[in-house]
Every structure is written in structure tokens, then in C-alpha cells.
Recover the amino acids of this structure.
């Protein structure tokens, strides 16, 4: 997804300036005076991404989401030091490496960069920058995200004017109310932030296990590579791990993964940390399938043509439904198939 | 053979139809039939009744639920015979069913069956977030997987 970015050297320089500047920094971060242009919005988001990986900070993040009519809130401590991003004792990001803590130690989820450039967010969205409210006691610029050609506000991103960090990101429902958000509630950044020595464990942990997928440039049947899907989602890569194929798409702001496994859907394992969920039945393109909501986003599971599909996205539900429409679904079996299945069923024990 | 007591052939008709009369008695019966309309009518009725009986289907007696093959010989005398010496149509039906069953068994073995799959949603959601955090904003993508993933409702 990375559109042409600012040079890391330039970012380092601006970070250094931010450290030196006592109050409002004289860095290249756009303030309200430059607000309103899409270029500045894209720059803000690019810098926020880089700042999360390069700036030292420490704070607490609140993760909120809804499933059905229920609202959930969880607090996570987050810190960045020496290029290592930590979320509590559970998740670590270092460079392109992503690790999660499991019962058997650290599990490596990802270990390489994504080479393909995604579409710029302005291909699908209209971005408007304006002065935002304080978040975690810090002044922000807010990027309002509209679907291009519409006036409906879908999302807001609040960027710290001092550190350039993304302080709050919220998806909005039809009424304009946030239904999923990630937001700092406390933050110490810059010179007051603890250095690497203060961070409890320094450096990235060693992974005890790995489920890093490997790139799959060519897929054989029953898999099929799709260059585009849904509304404005472009393929950034296809990967394989443990018999599961993942095709990852981006629209410039959000990611959408389609996981494919050969077979017939028998159910979905949703249990984690003692919590279970049976999902809800939804109808997409005339087919009934099971949908789930979680802190990471939305998911839907179905099968068709001998493949079990699981689509996951951090985007709004409507984007997921649009992508699912472009994928195969189970059609009613033909007469020959029904006869064969009936005969076969007579010889099955259950 | 003299006519019956009433001057008609009566029971002689049955013997006549069965060709059981001696030649002399047969000639006498034919002479009477030529002269007696009542006996000719009676002969036609008897002959028609016999034809009707012959075209009726022959039904096997039902197999006894108990005692068949184990009871005394007289209790088994009316049980239908099975096996090669049984009813040919029934044998063909049994063979046909056996063939269908065998074919179905072959189909059951050869028909490709998709394996049952249970997608591990929490793990797939983690993989998605990890990928998205490399291409997108790492803070907002990784923080949600640091909390217990709860799929609902």
C-alpha cells in the first residue's frame, strides 16, 4: 500500500527537531494552515506510519468495538523504543517482523516486507484535513474520510501535531457514531518518553515458533489469483502457510484478506481466551453465510467449489460484503450430485 | 356314457372337457350336445370358468415369521422355496438390488469427498492484522490483536 513515502532520513531529521523543539515544533508536519488538501492528508498518514516505528513513546491504547448490540472496551499498554513496538506482553512489531505471544512462547506471524505498492487512498476516498480535538491531552489534526463521490463520513483519523503519531482512528456507522476505534488514552512521546533502557525487555524477542507465510506467485486449482476485489481493493500479495492460502488486498486505507482452504465447511473455531461466538447469519449475493465481529474487524466464512473461504477485514462491513460477492459460493447441487449424495449417504455410518 | 339323472350331461361335461371319456362315451356325449342346447350352454360356461381360473396370477404364500425351516415338515410344506429353484422374477429383483447396492458401495468409495474444514478464526484474524500492519498503520492494526480476540455475537 505504501505510496511514495518521505525518506526515512528526512523523518529522522524531523523527529530530531521534534525532540529539540520545546513547544509547537517547526517540523514539516502540516498544521491547520495547510489543512484541507488531500496531499497533506496522505502525508499525515504516511508520517504517522513511520512515526509509530521510529519515535520513542509510551502510553495506553483503548480498543473499542461492537458485535451485535454489545460494546467492548479493552486497554492495552503500548511502547516504542529502539525500533521495537510493543503491545503489552502480547504483540511485538520490529521492522517487518510481527510476533504474538502464545502458550508455547513467541510465535512469528510475519517476517518480510510487502513489495507491491497498493493504490493511493485518494483513488477511493476523499480526504479532508482539519484541526481536531485534543486526544490524550495532545492537539491533533483530523483526517476525515469520505467515500469519493459521497458526503457520508466513514472514518476519522486523529494525528498528533507534535509527534506525528496516529492518536485515534475510528470507523463511523450510518449515524456518524464510532463503532470501532483504537485510541491513545495516555501518551508520553519525545524526550520525556522512556528510552530503550527503560523498556522492560529490550530488543525484539526470539520467536519459538513460526507460522510466517511464504509468498505464492502462482496458485494451482482450486485457488485462483484475483488482481482486484470488491470496491477498490487491489491485490498486494498471495501467501501460503500450513495449507492455507491468503490473498491480501488493500484499498489504500484498509486491508482485506481472503483465506482459502480446500474442503467443506464444518464449522468455525472461534474460541480464544475462554470466549466463544457463534456469529450471525447474513445473506450476501443470495447466499447465506456466517459473519463475525471482533476487535480486529469483520469476518465472514463460507464454502464454494470445494474451497472454504474466510474473509477478514479491518474495513467497514459493507466493504467485506462487496468483496465476498466477487468470490465463488456454493450453488445448489445438480440432480446427479444429489442422487450420488443420497446413495452415498445410505452407506455412511452417520 | 348315459346322460345324468335329469337327461343332461351335467358332471359328464367336466370329464368331456378333460378328455377323460372313453371313445364310446365321448361319441354319446357329442351326440347329446348336438341335440341339446342347454347342455351346449352349460359346456360353454364350464369351459369359460376353467379359462378364467387359468389366467389368475399365482401368489406365493408368505414366508412364516417363525418356524420356517425349523418346524415340522408339514408346517414348512407351504413355504415358498428360495434360491435358484425359487420364483425367477423374484430372483431377478434380488439380483438387481444387489447390483445397485454394489454400485453404490463403489461410488461411495470412489466419489471424491471434500475434507471437513474448521477455519481457526482467531489465528486467521491475527494473520490478517499482521499483514495489514506491515502495509498500513502498525498502531491501529496491531493493538486489536493484543486484546483477547472475541468473535461474536
Amino acid at each position: 500500500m505504501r505510496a511514495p513515502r518521505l525518506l526515512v532520513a528526512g523523518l529522522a531529521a524531523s523527529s530530531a527537531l521534534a525532540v529539540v523543539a520545546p513547544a509547537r515544533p517547526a517540523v514539516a508536519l502540516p498544521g491547520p494552515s495547510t489543512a484541507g488538501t488531500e496531499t497533506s492528508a496522505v502525508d499525515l498518514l504516511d508520517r504517522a506510519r513511520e512515526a509509530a516505528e521510529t519515535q520513542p513513546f509510551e502510553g495506553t491504547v483503548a480498543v473499542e468495538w461492537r458485535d451485535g448490540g454489545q460494546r467492548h472496551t479493552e486497554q492495552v499498554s503500548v511502547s516504542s523504543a529502539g525500533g521495537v513496538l510493543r503491545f503489552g506482553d502480547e504483540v511485538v512489531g520490529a521492522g517487518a517482523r510481527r510476533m504474538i505471544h502464545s502458550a508455547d512462547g513467541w510465535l512469528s506471524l510475519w517476517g518480510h516486507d510487502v513489495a507491491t505498492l497498493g493504490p493511493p487512498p485518494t483513488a477511493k476516498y476523499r480526504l479532508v484535513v482539519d484541526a481536531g480535538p485534543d486526544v490524550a491531552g495532545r492537539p491533533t489534526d483530523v483526517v476525515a474520510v469520505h467515500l469519493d463521490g459521497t458526503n457520508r463520513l466513514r472514518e476519522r483519523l486523529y494525528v498528533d501535531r507534535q509527534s506525528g503519531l496516529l492518536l485515534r482512528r475510528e470507523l463511523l456507522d450510518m449515524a456518524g457514531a464510532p463503532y470501532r476505534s483504537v485510541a491513545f488514552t495516555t501518551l508520553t512521546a519525545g524526550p520525556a518518553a522512556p528510552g530503550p533502557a527503560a523498556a522492560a525487555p529490550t530488543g525484539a524477542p526470539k520467536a519459538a515458533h513460526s507460522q510466517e507465510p511464504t509468498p505464492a506467485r502462482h496458485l494451482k486449482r482450486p485457488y485462483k489469483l484475483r488482481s482486484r476485489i470488491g470496491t477498490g481493493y487491489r491485490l498486494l500479495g498471495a501467501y501460503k502457510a500450513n495449507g492455507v492460502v491468503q490473498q491480501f488486498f488493500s484499498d489504500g486505507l484498509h486491508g482485506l484478506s481472503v483465506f482459502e482452504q480446500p474442503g467443506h465447511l464444518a464449522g468455525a473455531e472461534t474460541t480464544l481466551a475462554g470466549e466463544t461466538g457463534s456469529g450471525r447469519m447474513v445473506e450476501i449475493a443470495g447466499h447465506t453465510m456466517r459473519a463475525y465481529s471482533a476487535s480486529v474487524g469483520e469476518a465472514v466464512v463460507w464454502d464454494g467449489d470445494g474451497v472454504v473461504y474466510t474473509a477478514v477485514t479491518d474495513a467497514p462491513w459493507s466493504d467485506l460484503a462487496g468483496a465476498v460477492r466477487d468470490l465463488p459460493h456454493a450453488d445448489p447441487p445438480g440432480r446427479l450430485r444429489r442422487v450420488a449424495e443420497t446413495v452415498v449417504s445410505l452407506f455412511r455410518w452417520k | 356314457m348315459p346322460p345324468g339323472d335329469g337327461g343332461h350331461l351335467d358332471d359328464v361335461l367336466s370329464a368331456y372337457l378333460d378328455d377323460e371319456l372313453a371313445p364310446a362315451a365321448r361319441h354319446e356325449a357329442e351326440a347329446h350336445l348336438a341335440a341339446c342346447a342347454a347342455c351346449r350352454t352349460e359346456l360353454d360356461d364350464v369351459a369359460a370358468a376353467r379359462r378364467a381360473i387359468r389366467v389368475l396370477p399365482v401368489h406365493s404364500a408368505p414366508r412364516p415369521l417363525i418356524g420356517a425351516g425349523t418346524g415340522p415338515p408339514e408346517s414348512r410344506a407351504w413355504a415358498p422355496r428360495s434360491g435358484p429353484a425359487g420364483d425367477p422374477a423374484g430372483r431377478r429383483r434380488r439380483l438387481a438390488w444387489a447390483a445397485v447396492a454394489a454400485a453404490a458401495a463403489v461410488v461411495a468409495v470412489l466419489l471424491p469427498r471434500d475434507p471437513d474444514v474448521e477455519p481457526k478464526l482467531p489465528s486467521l484474524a491475527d494473520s490478517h492484522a499482521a499483514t495489514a500492519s506491515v502495509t498500513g498503520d502498525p498502531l491501529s492494526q496491531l493493538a486489536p490483536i493484543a486484546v483477547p480476540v472475541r468473535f461474536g455475537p
In short: Helices of chain B lie at 12-17, 23-35, 37-55, 73-76, 88-110, 121-135, 138-142. Chain B touches chain A at residues 104-105, 107-108, 111, 114-153 (CB under 8 Å). Chain B is about 55% helix and 0% strand. The first helix of chain B runs from residue 12 to 17.
